[in-house]
Amino acid sequence: MGCGSSTPAHPAAPNAAPSNISVVTPPEKSIDRAIDNALEVAKHEDENKIKMLLLGAGESGKSTIFKQMRLLYGTARSDDDLRMYGVVARSNIIVAVRKLLTHLRALGLEEELDRESRESEELDSGDHASMTCRQAYDELIAHLVDNTAPAAQDEKVLEGDWVGTSPRAGIAANNDAKLFLQLHESIRILWQSNTMKQVWAKRSAINVIDSHKNYLNDITRIASPSYKPTTQDVLIARVRTTQVVQEKYRIDGIDFEIYDVGGQRSERRKWIDCFDHVTAVIFVAALSEYDQTLAEAKRTNRMVEALELFRSVCNNRAFSDTSIMLFLNKKDVFAEKIMYSDIAAQRPFCDYAGPTKDFDHGVLYFIQKFKDCLIDDEFNDSFIHVTCATDTNNMEFVLDSTRTIIMTDNLKKSGFLGAD
Fold first, then answer.
1. Nearest to 189 by CA among 158, 156, 223
2. Beta-carbon contacts of residue 216 (< 8 Å; ≥ 6 apart)
3. pLDDT of residue 3
4. Which entry of 77, 105, 238, 265 is annotated as an active-site residue?
5. pTM for this structure?
6. Which of 102, 135, 232, 264 is the catalytic position?
7. Whether 64 is catalytic
8. Whether residue 59 lies in the annotated active site
């Protein structure tokens, strides 16, 4: 009654598969196996990958170490890269000169410039081809600090210049690079003055990048139309890191992922995005910054900030099973600076009892300060390196040693090697 017959109109064959079950054909099985194998390989590669994170306060040298890794293990820079760094190098010089000019004025050394200019003229020993050091100062202060100079005509300044402009460097850097080409002779003359040497010796108050002295010593080369940045120019070029930058390398059959992050306080909120599955942290602190303050917090000593940051990283639960390496960087600048800037004269480090002007005692003092930040006292000295990030030979040795330590430590934690 209204119900259809329960007998199928076309009875199924006795061996037929039920109609609601899909049949996997041999080609489909082969594809599935290939996908499973690919996933297994990817999982295995991910588990054996070394993920390294570069952490530290701003201007400690993290990005220089990151660039050294590219130099040692990665591909060569393209011409587009080099043009960007050429613009950055010229811009870095203008930034440094602005700070030095302001500091010279604040120190009341303008009369010293006048005296030096007069003596130079009397002795007929100055560079009279263009101007005196006082005239150079006046031109630079008008263009770079007081903004009282008429707008320069820069239409032809880049003609035939290999570097030219670089959109990647940003508008401000390109504008400063053009200013450099217009003012490079004045910069060269002022930089060679004895007065500017006095200003440079007191640069800790204005946070000039120490390595940019190399640029200032080579103004003529950098201003040349044929200028092409050298490896050293690229290494010391200062570009503030404002995002997480990643590089991948395959070294001796092992895959490495390296992450560089901004060190300024405003950038540190981005660090958390990189914390997952980290094999090793390289924490970078600048030894030479014991007498400097933060650019973003003028009352905070840079070394104190680095110590507190190191404390928070080492005692962070996210890194409880992570190898942490400490790079005390800028040893070359530290060796120079302790000759005239006493460690014990800095309020946070008035407990320093070692001899003045002593490199080894100073380094050991700061190593102990970093060790004091640890809750766990078992921090192997082999995990601490005193470095010069701009020295490729030094960094090649340090990074090779670091890589071996990290891989050995990783094997121990995985159970493949017995614990000490």
1. 223
2. 93, 96, 97, 187, 191
3. 43
4. 238
5. 0.79
6. 264
7. yes
8. yes
